[in-house]
Specification:
Elements lengths: L9 H12 L4 H8 L3 H11 E2 L2 E2 L1 H19 L4
Antiparallel strand pairs: 1-2
Helix pairs in contact: 1-4, 2-3
């Protein structure tokens, strides 16, 4: 069964940060945001630093990766 990949938006990253501060589990966060728990796990793995998650930092990293991808592969590919 194919899974549809959905990127998180900035507001969801801030919600993740708040849920983590409230000691929610990855499964609970995923349920609250209506995404698969692997999406949350992947977000934390890619965008955390030194065992903490900061939404502003995560957003900056995401935009930086996107910019590099456009440089490398061009728009629309």
């Amino acid at each position: 069964m194919p899974m549809n990949y959905q990127q998180l938006i900035d507001t969801q990253r801030y919600q993740i940060e708040a849920y983590l501060k409230a000691n929610y589990t990855i499964t609970q966060i995923a349920k609250e945001l209506g995404v698969d728990k692997s999406t949350i796990s992947r977000e934390l793995k890619r965008n955390s630093r030194k065992c903490s998650y900061n939404a502003a930092y995560a957003t900056m990293l995401t935009k930086e990766r996107k910019r590099e991808s456009y440089k490398r592969y061009g728009k629309g590919t």
